[in-house]
Design brief:
This protein has 601 residues and is an alpha/beta fold. The chain folds into 3 domains: 196 residues, 3-Layer(aba) Sandwich (Rossmann fold); 187 residues, ANL, N-terminal domain (Rossmann fold), CATH 3.40.50; 150 residues, GMP Synthetase, Chain A, domain 3. It is 37% helix and 22% strand. Strand 14 and strand 15 form a beta hairpin. The longest helix has 23 residues. It is globular.
Length: 601
């Protein structure tokens, strides 16, 4: 078994997250640690002020009887008080249990009881989802919580926490079944901060935006990494992202692919409504960006003529896009949680927005792989991050070993044993392979590989990616496990679909059009009249898209039938996770009747 690893990570000594924060408070007390919106204005807390708020709440928890190792849940949206509560629990020696704010009452109760949480920090709007027998405190009222504990007792408590002590129980998002609580130590987190910052460093006072769920390892790891380098975390809701980005002009940013896909779709939709000359200039510039991105990826120079085109395209198009998105000084945009379309990766990089893809899991405290800036390779998730070893098992499963790997699953010893090999490798449940440069190519979830009744294997992700290249397609799910052929459910780009309907005189019930605010802060159509997607002209439009994709697939991979859905996949219905990954088993269950129709003989 070939082992692939990046250079060793030079670390003088292991330390806890508590010590990491204290070191930054000592070295950069007056640098802004936190930024947040209040009455329409951005306000800031220095590292000194942040520490004081953490200390006050930690003293309250200690005075309330919280012992080392006790579990405390945080069930809330991403907001700066989330992190005050986080570090208050950690410095009191407690273990933070994260709960996604989008979960329903039953799911919340499962996590609280399974983790045996003593206390719950939440927001008033979520209070009714917390069972009455739990001790609850509201993040909106942290200033009211005061404890009679001496400074010496507080200092003794936070310093008593060791790097290998349990810091967090983070429940998996459950794309394939019941969530499991991954036990992550202080050192799991701290190690990953060291490793990631060696690739994409922050510097004191530099802003980055916290808007993705802190209940997930991805955003929380970036917050911790920022703390380790005295960066400034600016908090906002997803709907405030664009306003925040243009206000603070971040140097680093994390996203999930769906966000970049929506940004691209928004740009294309605006361009399509522009005069012919503007459209021509944009699509020419887009082609230049993609070519520049491809050259960058291969480590090649642009050459004289491409460089001239790039300068012109930057002046006419790229600079305006960066300005409108608030990305005028961006150094890296890390995309993870799912595969990004190659063309989008090339395009954004060619536009001067350096998008790099990574790979990780809850069980590895976020990343285990990351493409280096300037040496990115779309279609891969990069080499292992420094200090991590990886290998590919005989059946193609990705194996990971290193200091970021969890201790195991909370109260699930049998699951833990099944998840590790005898020699200590974490079995990720994902399939992959390494290219000639040691970059990992992600091939999908092991459980998601489709086996047709003919015995042929089909990987759904590459086919879905081909469908998503067409701007008329917003999402897709490939189906066929145990079936005679491949089919797909398609979520249209509803905005472009309605334009097509209006242009072609197709009648539909406009009252059934549902609009919501998207991650970019703009209004987004998420559902339409179901009769519209059954219209013959609409079916013919999407049949052409499917035929085009089929022309690039192997015979056994071709899509024989498809169904257009009248609404987008949603968090509320459990079809996607808080990090916008598709929960295939939920989607297949919900659209069971549609799927059966596609396989009727």
């Amino acid at each position: 078994m070939k082992v692939v690893k990046d250079p060793e990570l030079k670390i003088e000594r292991k330390e806890s997250l508590n010590k990491m924060l204290w070191n930054t408070v000592q070295s950069h007390p007056r640098v802004s640690a936190i930024g947040y919106w209040d009455d329409g204005k951005l306000k800031y807390l220095t590292y000194e002020e942040f520490w004081e708020r953490v200390r006050k709440l930690s003293k309250f928890l200690i005075s309330s009887g919280l012992r080392k190792g006790d579990r405390v849940a945080i069930y809330a949206d991403t907001r700066y008080e989330w992190e005050i509560a986080d570090f208050a629990v950690l410095t009191a020696g407690g273990v933070v249990v994260t709960v996604h704010s989008v979960l329903n009452r039953e799911q919340v109760e499962y996590i609280l009881r399974d983790s045996e949480s003593r206390v719950v920090f939440t927001e008033k709007k979520y209070a009714e989802n917390v069972p009455e027998d739990f001790e609850v405190y509201f993040l909106e009222e942290l200033e009211k919580l005061v404890g009679e504990v001496s400074d010496d007792e507080f200092e003794s408590r936070w310093k008593s926490v060791e790097p290998d002590d349990l810091a967090s129980i983070v429940y998996t998002s459950g794309t394939t079944g019941e969530p499991k609580g991954a036990m992550l130590t202080h050192w799991n987190w701290r190690f990953n901060c060291h490793s990631v910052m060696s690739i994409t460093p922050f510097y004191p006072g530099e802003p980055h935006i916290c808007y993705l769920p802190l209940s997930h390892v991805y955003q929380r790891l970036v917050f911790f990494a920022g703390i380790s380098r005295a960066a400034t975390a600016v908090f906002c809701s997803p709907q405030q992202f664009l306003e925040t980005s243009t206000a603070v002009k971040p140097v680093g940013l994390i996203v999930v692919p769906r966000i970049l896909e929506r940004v691209n779709a928004g740009i294309v939709e605006k361009v399509e409504k522009s005069p012919a000359l503007a459209k021509k200039i944009f699509y020419w510039s887009r082609g230049v960006a993609i070519e520049c991105g491809k050259r960058m990826s291969r480590g090649e120079k642009y050459g004289f003529w491409l460089n001239i085109k790039r300068i012109i395209a930057d002046r006419l198009v790229f600079s305006k896009i960066r300005e409108n998105l608030g990305l005028t000084r961006i150094r890296f945009v890390c995309s993870s949680a799912a595969e990004l379309q190659k063309e989008l990766a090339y395009m954004f990089n060619g536009m001067g927005i350096p998008v790099i893809e990574g790979y990780g899991m809850t069980e590895t405290a976020a990343p285990s792989n990351l493409n280096p800036v300037g040496r990115f390779k779309p279609g891969t998730v990069g080499p292992p991050i420094p200090g991590i070893e990886e290998a590919i098992a005989e059946d193609g499963e990705i194996l990971v070993r290193g200091d970021n790997v969890m201790k195991g699953y909370w109260r699930k010893e049998a699951e833990t044993r099944k998840t590790f090999t005898e020699d200590g490798w974490l079995k990720t449940g994902d399939l992959g392979e390494f290219d000639e440069d040691g970059y990992l190519v992600f091939l999908g979830r092991k459980k998601h590989i489709i086996v047709l009744d003919t015995g042929k294997n089909v990987s759904p992700v590459p086919i879905e990616e081909e469908l998503l290249k067409n701007p008329l397609v917003s999402d897709a799910v490939i189906i066929g496990d145990g079936k005679p052929y491949v089919t797909t459910l398609i979520v249209p780009n509803f905005s472009m679909l309605l334009e097509f309907a209006d242009k072609n005189g197709i009648e539909y019930d406009r009252s059934r059009t549902i609009v919501q605010r998207s991650i970019s802060g703009e209004e987004e159509i998420v559902a339409v009249d179901e009769n519209l997607v059954e219209n013959n002209a609409v079916k013919e439009l999407y049949a052409k898209i499917v035929d085009d994709v089929n022309s690039r697939l192997a015979k056994h991979e071709t899509i024989k039938k498809f169904k257009i859905l009248p609404e987008a996949f949603s968090l509320e219905k459990g079809e996607i996770t808080p990090t916008l990954k598709k929960r295939r088993h939920v989607i297949l269950k919900r659209y069971e009747k549609f799927i059966e129709e596609m396989y009727k003989r």
